[in-house]
Amino acid sequence: NGACCTAMRVELNQVYHQVGQVLSGHLAFGLPDPSCGELNWCGSPARGGDILNFNQERGFEGTSGKSFAGRVLLFERESLEELAETLDLRVDLDDISRCGGTLSRASEETARLRARLDLAFGRSSERGPVGLLEESSLLETGAAESILRLISLRSGGQPDTVQPARRS
């Protein structure tokens, strides 16, 4: 838990049914483990490895298969807006509430984000309160940046790429 971000790891050994609404002024995202298989998220099929959108205007609803494991990230909206501006990313955070159940399908980028979160969770567990403080910066900036970059692709922004030199 940091000043602008809360992250948690969830592991359930049975079917779950979740219904809710995100706290005003915040944005929340779910990153289910790829091993979770298919989920029903906000009326649509989603797979483990996707990024789940908790921010729909009508709220969210999800049902898992036999078990569930994943991560949940909750950010202060204002901090995401400031970071997007700093990174010069074209992100429409209002558009997220009009999007479907998943913001991004399973990809290398979502796998890297899950790995970074798991590393932070592991380090903070090993080092106690000091580890928690050290790892909160990863969640405040690293995880937020990853989420914003994935959203910017959905919003029509282009990722920063290096253009290859022309051959003569």
Overview of the structural elements:
- This protein is 36% helix and 27% strand.
- By secondary structure, it is of the alpha+beta class.
- Strands 1-8-3-6-9 form a five-stranded antiparallel β-sheet.
- Strand 4 and strand 5 form a beta hairpin.
- The chain is globular.
- The protein starts with a strand and ends in a 14-residue tail after the last helix.
- Residues 156-168 have low confidence and may be disordered.
Q: How would you summarize what this structure contains?
A:
The protein has 168 residues and is α+β, with helices and mostly antiparallel strands.
Total count of helical runs of at least 4 residues: 3
Beta-strand portion reads: 25-35%
Low-confidence runs of at least 5 consecutive residues: 156-168
Described by its quaternary structure, the protein is: single chain
> Can you count the beta strands?
9
Largest sheet: 5 strands, antiparallel
Task: Give, in spatial order, the strands making up the sheet with the most strands.
Answer: 1-8-3-6-9
Q: Would you tell me the structural class of the helices and strands? A: alpha+beta
The span between the termini is: 53 Å
H and E order: EEEEEEEEHHEH
Please estimate the helix content.
25-40%
Shape call: globular
Gyration radius, to the nearest Å? 16 Å
Average pLDDT score: 80
What are the SSEs and their pairings?
Blueprint: E1 5-12, E2 17-20, E3 26-32, E4 38-41, E5 44-47, E6 51-53, E7 60-63, E8 68-76, H1 77-86, H2 93-96, E9 102-104, H3 108-154
Antiparallel strand pairs: 1-8, 2-7, 3-6, 3-8, 4-5, 4-7, 6-9
